[in-house]
Each structure stands twice: as structure tokens, then as C-alpha cells.
């Protein structure tokens, strides 16, 4: 690990100021990816800006038809939250499936979304629910946020403050997990929202993506049988020692059907 300066920010304004004035600085949220990369000397920021003590980045709030969660909210807090369980049970379930207890107690929603690991769980929920990523500068729609492998619409000096999830009529999330890391080899989030059905996939491609053919079929009738004949192309999907692109394409269909089964009417 290279030498770096450590700054514990006490406010959003302070963190934003340090980041804006130092192009080589990095934000420290849960640190589950960044610290490991620094130890391997794959990342060498000159400054680390710790967001743990920034009050504006925490909290869970239900406001009418929306659920807003602060960027520094831990996975375990989301998994155990009564507000999340009552409004979007599938999101609470997703958070409880992330990694192990240590990861869930350290990792954060904002850190995961900003990092955009191709096998992370939250991107599927963000895309599947049509969430809005709120930064200290602007609001970014889910469909405009994820750009590619580890790439997002965030500017270098932009900080995620919170995410706003529209509360769906029903939703479900199922993943085929890696046996060691518990990352999603393929995960599918299905939601019937006020603006239609959304089906989002993580783990299968370079970044989370939606499946319009499944969305159209489920909009006509929200049932497993509706997507039984929908086949996802393997073109452009990930292929590695854990699963080929063809197997991942098959898993998208399998996980989607299970997600539909886990999406009871009303929630």
C-alpha cells in the first residue's frame, strides 16, 4: 500500500470541497473494494476522504410513494430495516444476501452503486425499480447511471448523497451466487411499478441491464408462464471460469422466473 493522506470529513460540504480540490483523492465509504485494491497497489489515491461521520449521507425514510436511503447506510441496516421490509421487501432481502456478516456490516449502498461491480447486487435493484441516484449536484435516473464495467455517470468530484426507490406494487430478487464470495454470477430483480414492469439483471454482463422482452411479456400478464419462452442472447455476456456466457444467458431465464414467483401481489 502506498502512502496517502487521511481526511475524516464531518460534513458533505467539507468532503465535496476536499474532493473538488484534489483530482487524485478517493472517497472512502465501506472500503470493501477500495482498501483491497490499495493493498494490492492497484489503486494509489493521494488522499482518502472518510465519509463515515457525514450525517447528510445516512438514514432511511419513506415519503409517500418513495423510499429514500442515505448513501452511507450499511447493507445490514437495510436488511434489518422495518421501513424497507414494509415498503420494498425484495430490497431488504437483497441486502441480506450480500457477502457475509462482516461485509454487510461494513459495506454501504452508495459505495456499492458508485463502484458498479458487474456482479454487485444493488445495481439490479436500482435499475429494476427505476431508482434515482441523488448526488450533491444533481439527480440521475437509473437508466442513465450505469455505463459499463465499473463505469457510471458520476463525475470525478461528485458524491452520492442518497438513492430514492419508487415503492413498487410487487418485486422479487433472486441470484445464483458464487459459493465463496457470494457475488451474483447472475441475479435478476423483477418489479411491477407504477410506470410498468422492469426486469434488471446483474452478474451476467459488464454492467446491470434490463430485459425489454421479459418486461413486455410480464406487463401483459405477471406470471412465470409469460416469460417461459423468452430467451436471452449470450452475445456480450460475461464468460469466465465460473460460468460461460451461454450458461449465464440460461441462468437469466431461470432466475427471472424465480424472481416472479417471489413477487407477491401488493409487495
Fraction of residues in H or I helices: 25-40%
Strand order of the largest sheet: 4-5-10-6-7
The CATH class of the largest domain, by name, is: Alpha Beta
> In whole angstroms, how far apart are the ends?
46 Å
Kindly state the number of beta strands.
14
Characterize the main sheet.
5 strands, antiparallel
CATH topology of the largest domain: Uridine Diphospho-n-acetylenolpyruvylglucosamine Reductase, domain 3
What is the name of the CATH architecture of the largest domain?
2-Layer Sandwich
Spans of at least 5 consecutive residues whose pLDDT stays below 50 are none
Q: Structural class, from secondary structure content?
A: alpha+beta
Number of helices: 11
Tell me what the structure shows.
The protein has eleven helices and 14 strands. The chain is of the alpha+beta class and 267 residues long. The strands form four sheets. A five-stranded antiparallel β-sheet has the order 4-5-10-6-7. Strands 11-12-13-14 form a four-stranded antiparallel β-sheet, with helices on both faces. Strands 1-3-2 form a three-stranded parallel β-sheet, covered by helices on one side. A hairpin with a 6-residue loop joins strand 13 and strand 14. The mean pLDDT is 96.
Amino acid at each position: 500500500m502506498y502512502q496517502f493522506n487521511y481526511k475524516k470529513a464531518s460534513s458533505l460540504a467539507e468532503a465535496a470541497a476536499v474532493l473538488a480540490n484534489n483530482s487524485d483523492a478517493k472517497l472512502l465509504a465501506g472500503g470493501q473494494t477500495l482498501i483491497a485494491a490499495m493493498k494490492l497497489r492497484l489503486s494509489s489515491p493521494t488522499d482518502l476522504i472518510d465519509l463515515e461521520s457525514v450525517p447528510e449521507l445516512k438514514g432511511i425514510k419513506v415519503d409517500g410513494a418513495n423510499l429514500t436511503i442515505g448513501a452511507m447506510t450499511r447493507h445490514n441496516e437495510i436488511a434489518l430495516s422495518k421501513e424497507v421490509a414494509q415498503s420494498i421487501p425484495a430490497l431488504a432481502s437483497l441486502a441480506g444476501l450480500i457477502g457475509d456478516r462482516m461485509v454487510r456490516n461494513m459495506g454501504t449502498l452508495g459505495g456499492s452503486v458508485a463502484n458498479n461491480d458487474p456482479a454487485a447486487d444493488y445495481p439490479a435493484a436500482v435499475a429494476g425499480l427505476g431508482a434515482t441516484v441523488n448526488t450533491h449536484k444533481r439527480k440521475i435516473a437509473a437508466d442513465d447511471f450505469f455505463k459499463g464495467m465499473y463505469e457510471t455517470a458520476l463525475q470525478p468530484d461528485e458524491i452520492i448523497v442518497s438513492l430514492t426507490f419508487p415503492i413498487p406494487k410487487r418485486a422479487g430478487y433472486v441470484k445464483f451466487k458464487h459459493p465463496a464470495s457470494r457475488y451474483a454470477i447472475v441475479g435478476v430483480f423483477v418489479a411491477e411499478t407504477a410506470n410498468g414492469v422492469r426486469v434488471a439483471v446483474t452478474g451476467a454482463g459488464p454492467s446491470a441491464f434490463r430485459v425489454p422482452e421479459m418486461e413486455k411479456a410480464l406487463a401483459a400478464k405477471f406470471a412465470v408462464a409469460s416469460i417461459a419462452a423468452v430467451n436471452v442472447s449470450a452475445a456480450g455476456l460475461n464468460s469466465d471460469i465460473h460460468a460461460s456466457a451461454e450458461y449465464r444467458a440460461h441462468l437469466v431465464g431461470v432466475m427471472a422466473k424465480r424472481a416472479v414467483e417471489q413477487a407477491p401481489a401488493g409487495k
